[in-house]
Amino acid sequence: EAPLRTLADRADVRIGTAVDMAALAEDSTYRRTTAREFNSVTAENVMKWEVVEPTRGAYDWSGADALVRYARDRGQAVRGHTLVWHSQLPTWLNSGVADGTIDAAELRGILRKHITTEVKRYKGKIYQWDVVNEVFEEDGSLRNSIWLQKLGPSYIADAFRWAHAADPKAKLFLNDYNVEGINAKSTAYYDLAKRLRAEGVPVQGFGIQGHLAIQYGFPGDVAGNLARFAALGMQTAFTEVDVRMILPSDPEKLAKQATYFRSLLDACLGTRSCKSFTVWGYSDKYSWVPGVFAGQGAATLLDEEFVAKPAYGALREGL
Ligand code: XIL
């Protein structure tokens, strides 16, 4: 049977997964399956700021380089994740801002250097970059991060301009969760994207994480949401799809989960603007969900033994 990536090639869409570099190093089944099923990969953690610059000025690219090499050798495209976020920042940065040893002007320079250094390092090797991640609250107000507090809202346009200067060919994305359908948060992104593009800021994509839970229901009007970003001339992507449930799983929950995966994929395949569909891990053995959402899990396509769940078949049929 054809793996997902073969079907995705025919459908002219990228099918991706987040990659856990520890699992990639130690688990040959994981290594083999990641190569067989996906034609796109995203670093689950190793391109985040806390990993690449754990000490100020001392970089560790080992994980990111290893992923880019792995992908190149297997004909996979790489999504870059993520340049500006409130989470997983290095301790030296958080504490320097908190104790005032890093002031606003210095912070802006630090951010510019971070973006420029990382994007240049992988210039020509990354097709989509998540430039800013999770910048809005659920009500559509800007998140009160250190970036907003110290630099003001212009940090977003600055980040896109710096990233574009460093790799003019990479498609630059906004990215967030709970923005699958049309709601206050996704509308805040729509308004922001429209304004930035009118101002000539290089933002080309809207990334929808797609962390769903069957107990919360399927979001409304995903197709309409993708369409309005397409109407702005933007690409769209599902960037971190998983569908969790309250444990234990059962056949009914797994069937429902399969329809959620399939509905997101169908929305993507239904618009030419949607270029990639990435899952946030593909085996329950390595999913982030149980560690973060107490009592929940079974959120991915394969079980802990790498056996396909109904969701895997649903994606195959959809492609
Ligand atoms: C998660 C990783 O999966 C975990 O391993 C890590 O401990 C925390 O971050 N939104 C994002 C991702 O944009 O970067 C997050 O990844 C999941 C939520």
Q: Please give the share of residues in helix.
A: 40-55%
Shape: globular
* Rg calc: 19 Å
Continuous helix count: 14
Structural class: alpha/beta
The percentage of residues in β strands lies in 15-25%
Q: What is the CA–CA distance across the termini?
A: 13 Å
**Largest sheet, spatial ordering of strands:** 1-2-3-4-5-6-8-9
Mean pLDDT figure: 98
Question: CATH top level?
Answer: Alpha Beta
What is the structure about, briefly put?
It is built from 14 helices and ten strands.
What does this structure look like?
With 319 residues, the protein is an alpha/beta fold. The chain is built from 14 helices and 10 strands. The protein has helices at residues 4-11, 21-26, 28-37, 49-52, 62-73, 91-98, 104-121, 146-151, 155-166, 184-198, 222-231, 251-269, 289-292, 310-318, and strands at 14-19, 40-43, 77-84, 128-133, 171-176, 205-208, 211-213, 235-246, 274-279, 296-297. The chain has an 8-stranded parallel beta barrel with strand order 1-2-3-4-5-6-8-9, surrounded by 6 helices. The longest helix is centred in the last third of the chain and has 19 residues, at 251-269. It starts with a helix and ends with a helix. It binds (3S,4R)-3-hydroxy-2-oxopiperidin-4-yl beta-D-xylopyranoside. It catalyses: Endohydrolysis of (1->4)-beta-D-xylosidic linkages in xylans. Residues 1-318 form the GH10 domain.
